[in-house]
């Protein structure tokens, strides 16, 4: 199970780095000089370039992979062992302490009700 979690963690890290790279490469909507002065096409619903291009679709795919890997890691991290029982049931038995064969010194000085 640890190997599987390691593979998922590697996929998650690669997806995060891929998302960072794709987001940094993308061209922002307000980056055009015309948009700074109130360009007409920049205020539309999807902007001037259409609904989605390759970079935005790739970013969405990387985000999906990242979230699926995160959910899988959360599930594996929260998985409980299948054996039913207490942790104390699996501890080794401890031998009782040895009782001394002769009484301690001064035991005859203790008053008893006889």
TrEMBL record:
Q: Where in the cell is it found?
A: Cell membrane
InterPro entries for the chain: SecG
How is the protein disposed in the membrane? Multi-pass membrane protein
Tell me the superkingdom of the source: Bacteria
Which ranges does the record mark as transmembrane?
A: 7-25, 54-76
Which of UniProt's keywords are assigned here? Cell membrane, Membrane, Protein transport, Translocation, Transmembrane, Transmembrane helix, Transport
Pfam families, A to Z:
SecG
Which PANTHER family would you find in this protein's record? PROTEIN-EXPORT MEMBRANE PROTEIN SECG
Functional description taken from the UniProt entry: Involved in protein export. Participates in an early event of protein translocation.
Q: Which family does it belong to?
A: Belongs to the SecG family.
Name listed for the protein in its UniProt record: Protein-export membrane protein SecG
What is the species of this protein?
A: Comamonas nitrativorans
């Amino acid at each position: 199970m640890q190997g599987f979690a390691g593979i998922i963690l590697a996929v998650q890290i690669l997806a995060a780095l891929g998302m960072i790279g794709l987001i940094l490469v993308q061209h922002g909507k307000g980056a055009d000089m015309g948009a700074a002065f109130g360009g007409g096409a920049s205020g539309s619903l999807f902007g001037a370039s259409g609904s989605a291009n390759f970079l935005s679709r790739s970013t969405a795919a990387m985000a999906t992979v990242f979230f699926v890997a995160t959910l899988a890691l959360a599930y594996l991290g929260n998985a409980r062992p299948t054996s039913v029982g207490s942790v104390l049931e699996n501890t080794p038995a401890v031998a009782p302490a040895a009782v001394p064969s002769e009484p301690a010194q001064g035991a005859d000085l203790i008053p008893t009700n006889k």
